[in-house]
Amino acid sequence: MDTLLIIDDEKSLLDVLSLMFKKEGYEVKTAASGAEALDILTNNTVDLVITDIRMPHLSGMEILKYVKENQPETPVIVITAYGSIQQAVEALKAGALDYIVKPFDIEELKILVARGLERKHLELENILLKKDLKDKYKFENMIGKSRLMQEIYVLIDKVAGTDSTVLITGESGTGKEMAARAIHNLSRRKDKPFVTINCAALPENLLESELFGHTKGSFTGAISDKKGMFEVAHKGTLFLDEIAEMSPWTQVKLLRALQERKIRRVGGTDEIPVDVRLIAATNQDLKRRIEEGKFREDLYYRLNVISFEMPPLRKRTEDIPLLVQHFLQKYCQQMGKKMKRLAPDVISLFESYSWPGNIRELENVIERIVAIEDRETVTPACLPPEMISQANHNGRQVDLRAGFNLNEYLDDIAKRYIIKALELSGGKIKDAAPRLGVSYRTLRYLINKYGLKPRVSDLNGEEEGEELGANGLAGDEPPVPLMNNGRAAVKEPERGRGR
After folding, report:
1. CA separation, residue 267 to residues 113, 215, 220 (Å)
2. Which residue of 192, 237, 296, 489 is most buried, as measured by CB atoms within 10 A?
């Protein structure tokens, strides 16, 4: 329960404010003079102070000065008469949160108090979290107080003390590389190299050379011997990101290196011993890749000694205010700008947004705000249009008495999730279809129906932007829309009937 200290030499006003805020669920202390207030502040910790600025003997300005010197995290709201606005401005310069002019609106004062306490709690949580991470976990840039993240911290702490291979799964942008770095930094290998390779960023021949090195003349352009990343990471940690994209041939060589702790350079004959702790990461379902014949089962079990999943941001919304504060501080300092504040409705929008790009997307949004917004307080108008659009859609109220178009509403939902599934699948229809629980053919039909174009087409030799046919099914009849327990479903056309 938050504690308020209300200071005013008008007893009737003190009684009214005390009664009102107690009904709001606050603990309330009152003082009829500045001297009485100092006595309370000296012997108690309060969460917020409301003080009249003009009082005999000891003014509100002197109370403000005392609070800022002794309890700097405690917000102060000053009350002033109409003729004393200049003093209120001086109070703001001295560190007051805000001021309110007599006679004032009670509801306005409630809002100011709630805003002040919210800001204080956010700042304190961030300070405590950073201290906790620094003293207990020593995780670089890993921020979160949610239960899911606390479980990850404990697991990382345990895993770091071993040399076991680790497999980290999770959507793009959830912080898999940060988790890998945390494991390395807490391990006995922390003083040795931490080497990263993105397996999706290199073609097969270059990835093999990058991992295992090559000898002079082994292929065109190999003008000298080159160490691979296994050798560079000797005694340290090698992090293989997007390992699901590794070709079958390179998978064979990686499996051999893990089993024998030796590597052979491309074009070479000598076996080179290596002592490397391997951490792999992927945003794909490796078991599905095994079923599809795209990933070796024996390599999967070699990698999956210890595994854990980094949770998506939408499942840890209580961490969003802390992450926002962290990124605001980071980019305001980098760009030499004054620290910005977020309006309460902005935080609400952040918490209701789905964050398909996870922490990486959140960081990009904050960087953009700091870079292009001049105003000190960030409002919803500063946010990207897609965030506002989704928030408006999620908050859309349906009035059945007035009537509305059900098909249009369901189509809007379906279109939004198809777009998101395609984004997560790199535009590949066959990878997006399982995410939506529909067949490849059904998804092709829906993409055509809604006028969408996948960025990548990976079946039947389709080119980017190629039309999918009259109904997206190459002459087949379209799926039949159904309603199932209030949710849109799609039924595949039956075969052999009426044909």
Report:
1. 71, 6, 12
2. 237
